[in-house]
Design brief:
Layout lengths: L1 H7 L12 H8 L4 H8 L4 H15 L5
Helix pairs in contact: 2-3
Length: 64
Amino acid sequence: YLEELGEEFNGLLLPPIRTDSNITLAQSHQETIFEYEARERIRSRAADDFRALAERIDTQEVQP
C-alpha cells in the first residue's frame, strides 16, 4: 500500500512512524516519548523514527 501511495504522490511520502507501546506509556505519564525514553533509559523505535523524520525535514531545502 505504501508503495502505491509513493507512486501516486511521486515519492513525496515520508517514511512511516512505527508503532511502539512506549508512546502510550509516555502519554500516561504526560511526557513526550523523548522525555519518557530518557527517564526510563529505554530505546523507542517510534522515537528513532521521529528523530529521523525531524532530521530529514531539517536538512531539506526550502522551496519558494
